[in-house]
């Protein structure tokens, strides 16, 4: 007995595809440019002249402040040069200093090579105390050019 297989009817539906029109949206300008009135133009020119004069004064002030900072950094560098010389005079290694001061050997190296730009007073005191030295501070009058820069 063989079964007879009857073909199934397949229903086909038509699908209608519509074309969608895509419109390109143009970007609007960020700002509107207007020409200045003669009065506004003369006002702007006066402001430019004023700023040009102030610019020179600001540059001079900035240079004076930069020189003051460089002088302070040079002073700090000389302190650490002296501290390193004292450490070497006492025959101490970086590991010895690390043990005495409680600071990491890498920190001491960075202080001595001046790669730490702004060590704290406490750090300087710990280093000096480990060498048997005392840090002291003094005051002195500031000259007019440096006083204006700070």
CATH topology: 434 Repressor (Amino-terminal Domain)
Give helix and strand order, one letter per element, not per position: HHHHH
State the shape: flat
- Number of discrete helical segments: 5
Helix content: 55-70%
Rg (C-alpha, Å): 39 Å
* Mean of all residue-level pLDDT scores: 84
* CATH class descriptor name: Mainly Alpha
Number of strands: 0
In whole angstroms, the N-to-C terminal distance is: 112 Å
When the domains are counted, the total is 1
Account of the 3D structure:
The protein is mostly helical and 150 residues long. It has one domain: lambda repressor-like DNA-binding domains (434 Repressor (Amino-terminal Domain)), CATH 1.10.260. It has helices at residues 38-89, 94-101, 105-112, 121-130, 144-149. The termini are far apart.
Question: How would the blueprint of this fold be written?
Answer:
Layout: H1 38-89, H2 94-101, H3 105-112, H4 121-130, H5 144-149
In short:
The protein has 150 residues and is mainly alpha-helical.
Question: How would you describe this structure in keywords?
Answer:
mainly alpha; 434 Repressor (Amino-terminal Domain); flat
